[in-house]
Design goal:
Length: 130
């Protein structure tokens, strides 16, 4: 099952992909216009033949409603099911994990993609997809 995971942010959106075997942080979309981000993600879904979109959703906060609206837009653009998956502090967890692996600070551009990969890893394990 091909899954695209998204760690949505107002300025940066992390993207990761699961091809049924491997979870890979893909890229960070640096864009403040959510329609432009949604179009880019729609293109990614098509090129990667994604079957579902996993969208991180915080328990509360100012982004909650914006993420839901963004998810609806993605669903309309792609025709794919958008699954909202709980995410809490994924960006900080990504920074911590990369520090463990590399032993140094990483580029802020990469941490959001790793956060999306951690979100996807949690979803895949929770749903026994490996």
């Amino acid at each position: 099952m091909h899954l695209l995971a998204i760690d949505y942010g107002l300025r940066k959106t992390g993207v990761a992909f699961f091809d049924g075997n491997l979870i890979e942080p893909l890229e960070v979309i640096e864009e403040t216009d959510h329609k432009v981000s949604a179009n880019r993600l729609s293109q990614l879904c098509l090129s990667l033949q994604a079957k579902q979109i996993i969208l991180g959703l915080p328990e509360s906060g100012p982004l909650l409603e914006k993420i839901r609206v963004f998810g609806e837009l993605l669903g309309e653009l792609t025709g794919l099911k958008v699954i909202y998956h709980p995410e809490t502090l994924t960006t900080q967890a990504a920074i911590d994990r990369i520090k463990l692996v590399r032993g140094r600070k990483i580029s802020p551009k990469k941490e959001d993609a790793v956060a999306a990969a951690l979100l996807l890893e949690d979803y895949v394990e929770l749903n026994h997809l490996r």
